[in-house]
Amino acid sequence: MIKRDEAVKLLEENIKAENMRKHCYASEAVMCAIAHKLGRDENEWGIAGLLHDIDVEITNADPFTHGPGAEKILKGKISDKSLDAIIMHNEIATGKKRTTEFQHALAAGETITGLIIATTLVYPDKKIAGIKAKSVTKRMKQKAFAASVKRENILECEKIGIPLHEFAELSVNAMKEIGDVLDL
């Protein structure tokens, strides 16, 4: 399995959009926190979070090809379990349903980052340090807020045994730790 610095290099080679890179760093932080909570390999899960959108620019974020396109870039560089979770984070492209803990964790973890960032951006100072998990869970119920964020993906946290309020707290805290990287 590749080391983090190699994964960062791969990310930078394949993703040029700064905001997409920030999303990947946020996803890495959240996946590390989930792995820690569940007693899983934090490095493996973090790298899966970091690289989950590696093919997004190549596929133009096409929902019918994004995800599986990562296989060409990542095969042999990361574990098969990580690659599977990355491919399955977008069920539309595979025509299959997520079934494993890793798949559910990545889908929930990468998706909640968007809701947290959107919540942060409506605050006057636009700083993640002031965000509370309760604000995120409140906005989960507001379908018009960050409407493109798939709430059903976030709720997959419950399939891995983490209640939504706890998942929001874990995710917000993970992202606060890298607030400077996210410019939030």
Question: How does this model look, in words?
Answer:
This protein has a single domain (4-179), classed as Orthogonal Bundle (Hypothetical protein af1432). The model has no long low-confidence stretch (mean pLDDT 95). With 184 residues, the chain is mainly α. It has helices at residues 4-14, 18-38, 42-51, 70-74, 80-88, 91-94, 101-121, 133-140, 151-154, 164-176, 179-182.
First-last Cα distance: 31 Å
CATH class designation: Mainly Alpha
| Total helical segments | 11
Low-confidence stretches: none
CATH topology: Hypothetical protein af1432
Helix content: 55-70%
Which architecture per CATH?
Orthogonal Bundle
Radius of gyration: 15 Å
* Count of individual domains: 1
Order of helices and strands: HHHHHHHHHHH
| Biggest sheet overview | none
| DSSP strand tally | 0
Quick recap:
By secondary structure, this protein is mostly helical. Helices cover 60% and strands 0% of the residues. The model has no long low-confidence stretch (mean pLDDT 95).
Write the topology of this structure.
Blueprint: H1 4-14, H2 18-38, H3 42-51, H4 70-74, H5 80-88, H6 91-94, H7 101-121, H8 133-140, H9 151-154, H10 164-176, H11 179-182
